[in-house]
Amino acid sequence: MSERKPYPSDLSDGQWSLIEPVVTAWKDRHRSVSGHQGAYAMREIVNTIFYQGRTGCQWAYLPHDLPQKSATYYYFAAWRDDGTDQVIHELLRCQVREKARRLEDPTLVVLDTQSVRVAAGVPASTTGRDAGKRVPGRKRALAVDVLGLVIAVIVLAASTHDNAAGIALLDHVAEHTCGTVHKALVDQGFKKQITQHGSSMGIDVEIVQRDVQERGFVPQPIRWRVEQTYGILILHRRLVRDYEHHPASSASRVYWAMTHTMTRRLTGTNTPTWREPQAVTA
Predict the structure, then answer these.
(1) Where does the chain have alpha helices with state H?
(2) Cβ 116 vs Cβ 138: under 8 Å
């Protein structure tokens, strides 16, 4: 296969070196019985996942110079099902925290939810309607640290109450951080059920109250980090709407989007925007 022109979403050599050990180790454990290594390099498979995440294109519309859907989806689904996408994400998350001179696992997390519409064809059995936000679709629930890094993500029907989502998130947080988290911040959409559940786990859940005298949007200290993370995720057009048939695929998209973001943070590379550079005039 001839060398192609790179896309803005492609990994640089330095960024690929952060992911390559995990992918290579996975490939070594899943060798073909026939010994065939596959038609595509693993770096190209990852580049295609990132390309689709950034552009939001449908599987059938992947460019012809990238690996085909059949190959890319095979790895996307396999890594989703066996947790390899999370292994890569956790490896980079720990490196970003270490670079910021913090311990690998946080002691404080911020929880929040986001309801998004779904695409046509998404099974109705996995969707619902968020009555408060008047959004039919699915609900993403995130737990992030003070750096805005994702600690846990779950995807549920939009009709799921924030308390139920928050309780499930706390369980995921405890599992992913080995019990290091002692405090969680949530907004007023969460109620006492989550504080009670947190207490049973040794996590102090604080419902951050909004000052009634404030008008307009006023960022709340520390808790605004989760809003920032949602803003970063929306730069990945595949996450603007939920296109995935399986909620697990939706969660995997979040992990891959954050993985892409963290490779840039670790290599000091700016995230490209969708605006064309302005022409320089004399």
Answers:
(1) 13-29, 42-55, 69-82, 84-99, 162-177, 192-201, 224-234, 247-267
(2) yes
Q: How far apart are CA 68 and CA 172, in angstroms?
A: 34
**Residue 201: partners with Cβ closer than 8 Å, 6 or more residues away:** 170, 171, 174
Mutual angle of helices 69-82 and 42-55, in 10-degree steps: 90
Which residue type is seen at 280? V
Q: For residues 192 and 206, give the distance between their C-alpha atoms in angstroms, rounded to a whole number.
A: 10
- Which domains are assigned to the chain? 105-242 (3.30.420.10)
Q: pTM score, two decimals?
A: 0.90
Cβ pair 158, 136 in contact under 8 A: yes
Here the tokens at position 45 are 């498979």
Within 10 Å of residue 100's Cβ, how many Cβ atoms? Answer: 12
CA distances from 173 to 62, 87, 136 (A): 35, 15, 27
Note the pLDDT tens digit of each residue in 23-39: 999 999 988 766 666 67
Q: Is 186 helix (H, G, I), strand (E, B) or coil?
A: strand
Q: What residue type is assigned to position 256 of the chain?
A: W
**Nearest alpha carbon to residue 47 among 235, 260, 251, 236:** 260
Angle of CA points 177, 258, 138, to nearest 5°: 90
With CA atoms as reference, report the closest residue to 266 among 19, 79, 47. 19
DSSP for 16-61, please give it: HHHHHHHHHHHHHHT--TT----SS-HHHHHHHHHHHHHH---GGG
Residue 41 phi, psi dihedral angles, 5° rounding: -70, 145
Give the residue from 177, 115, 176, 171 showing the smallest Cα distance to 141.
115
Q: What are the pLDDT digits (tens) for 3-30?
A: 889 999 999 999 999 999 999 999 999 8
